[in-house]
Amino acid sequence: MLEKILMVDDESAILQGYQRLLHHEFQTEIATGGAEGLAAIASRGPYAVVVSDMRMPVMDGVQFLTQVKSLCPDVIRIMLTGNSEIETAVHAVNEGNIFRFLTKPCNKETLAKTLTAALMQYRLVTAEKELLQNTLSGSITVLTEVLSLVNPAAFSRAVRVRRYIRHVAISLALPSPWRFEVAGMMSQLGCVTLDPETIEAVYAGQKLSPDEQARFDAHPTIASDLLAKIPRMEPVAWMIAHQNRAAPVEGDIADREMADMRLGAEILRATLAFDELLCKDMSKTEAANRLLRQNRDLDPRIFQALVELEPEIEDREVRTCAIDDLATGMILHQDVRTHTGVLMVAKGQEVTFPLVLKLKNAYRKGAIGDGVSVFVLKGKAARTS
């Protein structure tokens, strides 16, 4: 499928001329003026390349392409103008990150070569983005699997925290929520350096020796250092590094990236404290209210979202469910341990498809019993053992 090119000008005759010149080589569409161009991007996109005239009423080319950049960062942007002043070119490049700047009239050969170069640039950008996304996804998957094997208690907590953060991100309508979820999932990664017994003691509220406490307190820094080596994970690494303390004000406080990182660290700090109280059998409402009183610096909407995460205990009931009847969405009411006492899954973890497979395999090998205690909604059918 050919990538689409959008041509934008305030003169329809010029746009029709472009289409006649280019229709044999390129898939072009036209829009009269900046407002119509933005509407086309919203309704008929995506486009690989957007070509805009500079001199247009209401919204000039720089204003239009700047908005295009904000809406579709990967789109390659080209400016056409009859004004050859250097100031116009510099302003266009700086404000809209213009790929090429062409003067009018522009002959077919020059325009075709420029569009071909723009399409090649678009393919390079999208290919690199896909590669980075696949690399990032694969790296997170590997790290998650390592954590689940080395330290099940830390992994279970990470899964719970990710679930909390996903709900908070949806409730607050946060942009790019995947980064906050990844921060939750990777928040316990540094625990791979700790003994499982130490982690279990921490989550059980037991007092550690000074040396053990110091090693545990260092796990966010260890996780941050590991993740910072992965492309595009630097913001997530920063959130994790500040998960147990108030995030400092760094850089320009008006910077959107920095604001998102600070918010991510605050959400992570709140959800980790929330999980700790729930593990002590405190209700969601009581836990959220206590944390709200103790953390006046945090956005109260975070705690409100956590209260609304899922039905309260009174809306659920505990059942002993056969391993073969476990269903996604159930919540474990107890730790699942092997017959020799090794922790496989910690209580409070949501049942997922991979977890069902893991427990079924352990059961078939005779490592665990046939029944596991879970929370289910009252009235929901489930065969028990």
Considering the chains and any ligands shown, give keywords for the structure.
single chain; 385 residues; alpha/beta; Rossmann fold; Hypothetical protein af1432; Molybdopterin biosynthesis moea protein, domain 2; 5-stranded parallel β-sheet; 15 helices; 10 strands; 53% helix; disordered C terminus
Write down the Rg.
27 Å
Q: Please count the helical segments.
A: 15
Envelope shape: elongated
**Residue-averaged pLDDT, rounded?**
84
Task: Provide the CATH topology of the largest domain.
Answer: Hypothetical protein af1432
Kindly report the name of the CATH homologous superfamily of the largest domain: Hypothetical protein af1432
- Secondary structure tally: strands: 10
Helical content band:
40-55%
How would a crystallographer describe the biggest sheet?
5 strands, parallel
- N-to-C terminal Cα separation, in Å? 54 Å
- Secondary structure class reads alpha/beta
Q: What is the string of helix and strand elements?
A: EHEHEHEHEHHHHHHHHHHEEEEHE
Structure in words:
By secondary structure, the protein is of the alpha/beta class. The chain is built from 15 helices and 10 strands. Helix 3 (61-71) runs parallel beside helix 4 (86-96), helix 7 (177-186) packs across helix 11 (234-241) and helix 12 packs across helix 13 (284-294). Strand 4 (76-81), helix 4 (86-96) and strand 5 form a beta-alpha-beta unit. It has helices at 12-22, 34-44, 61-71, 86-96, 108-150, 152-171, 177-186, 196-203, 210-217, 219-227, 234-241, 256-278, 284-294, 300-307, 353-364, and strands at residues 4-9, 27-32, 49-53, 76-81, 100-103, 316-322, 331-332, 336-337, 343-345, 371-377. 35% of the residues are buried. Mean pLDDT is 84; it is low at 381-385. It is 53% helix and 12% strand. The protein has 3 domains: 4-126, 3-Layer(aba) Sandwich (Rossmann fold), CATH 3.40.50; 151-309, Orthogonal Bundle (Hypothetical protein af1432), CATH 1.10.3210.10; 312-385, Molybdopterin biosynthesis moea protein, domain 2 (Alpha-Beta Complex), CATH 3.90.105. The strands form 3 sheets. The chain has a 5-stranded parallel sheet, with helices on both faces. The protein has a 3-stranded antiparallel sheet with strand order 6-10-7, with no helix packed on it. Strands 8-9 form a two-stranded antiparallel ribbon.
